[in-house]
Amino acid sequence: MPTDPLRAAGLRRTPARLAVLAQIEQQARPLAHAELLALPDLAQLDDITLYRTLAALVEAGLAHRVLGTDGVWRYGAPPGGHPGCPGNHAHFFCSACRAMACLPEQPIPRITLPPGAAVDGRHLLVFGRCAPCVAAGSAP
Q1: Which CATH architecture has domain 5-136?
Q2: In the beta sheet, which residues pair with residue 32?
Q3: CB atoms < 10 A from the CB of 6, how many?
Q4: Which residue of 50, 65, 76, 93 pairs with 30 in a disulfide if CB–CB is 3.0 to 4.6 A?
């Protein structure tokens, strides 16, 4: 029998957490707060409930968040949580339409740190224009 991810993470099974977790796991890319609220299964949630639910899921490792160059956090399944979001990965952010996508797993460039520094995490954000925006001639 599969383990309940919420209980395994020490979280209560609330309707909001179940709904948000299900939606995040179904998405092929990280979504902004407003995009999540626009999903039919989450439309009944208020802003505060969604923010608190997302924070709890991120803290428990059941979701990850990525900051776009527009200053908006986007939320998705944790790395490896679904086929579109591999283990160690980077994200692509479209400067025109503001969509974000998980990039396929690939080596992340080696970076030389200042002497004595230690890495606590890593994140790589590549930005440009997605194929539909390039085809439409959209400006960044």
Answers
A1: Orthogonal Bundle (1.10)
A2: 74
A3: 18
A4: 76
